[in-house]
Amino acid sequence: MSVTATARITAVADGRGSTALPLLESDGPLALRRTRSPETGYARVTVVGAMSAPLGGDRLAVEVRAEDGARLTVDAAAATVALPGAGPDAGPASYTVRLSAGEGAELRWLPEQLVSARGSALDMTTRADLAPTARLVLREEQVLGRHGEPTGRLSTRLTVRRAGRPLLDQHLAYGPGAPGGWDGAAVLGGHRAVGQLLLVDPAFDHGLPAPRLLGTTAALTPLAGPAVLVTALAPDARLLRAVLDEALEGLLKDSRALRRS
């Protein structure tokens, strides 16, 4: 039996230099836990999987709102594993993430990896709507198949709008039924882990980092707006995370320098 569930988070500035969470609503397999943030002024929520999901036919969603001036980090306790449905007629699962950040807000969406298990079919959509002065740190990582198995079918779309205008619209597809060449030398080149890191920061209005390669299988691309996208490939999830973490550390250092100047 398929599951339909939507978890919701709302963060607001409390007027005392901190962030409150007036809405923390778990649903179905999406359990939300308030966790301690290592940074002063930030609220932190960890998504904890309460059951195996998404399975074929499931319809899952997470809605996150960081109101004006709020600072929120959302992470996860473990990887999400897309699994086959209970029967041949289950159909693909869907996982929708809707993010919004108001004026002066900072939202960090940092889930663990999404693993596409053999026989699964998942359509994942992430949409972010940002105010002109909002900051967004977004990381998404996909692992194509568990150890020793081929990948399932995975389709992902990442759409970001800033001040009502398109900033990024990216669609990726892997596995059975995906357009030909997805696993060829020009796309994955034998790698099983792929990830994206997006930093949107008004500080980049004063100067964007130059496009460049980050090692042999990652690239930094400035966007047509105060934002930078890093795309990376790696043989496994651990190495992918190392590349994206190093890139994020450097980009945050750049943005801090621009804000001070």
From TrEMBL:
Alphabetical list of Pfam families matching this protein: UreD
An annotated Gene Ontology molecular function: nickel cation binding
Organism: Streptomyces pratensis (strain ATCC 33331 / IAF-45CD)
Protein name according to UniProt: Urease accessory protein UreD
4Fe-4S recorded as keyword: no
Assigned protein family: Belongs to the UreD family.
A GO cellular-component term linked to this record: cytoplasm
Cytoplasm listed as a keyword: yes
Subunit structure: UreD, UreF and UreG form a complex that acts as a GTP-hydrolysis-dependent molecular chaperone, activating the urease apoprotein by helping to assemble the nickel containing metallocenter of UreC. The UreE protein probably delivers the nickel.
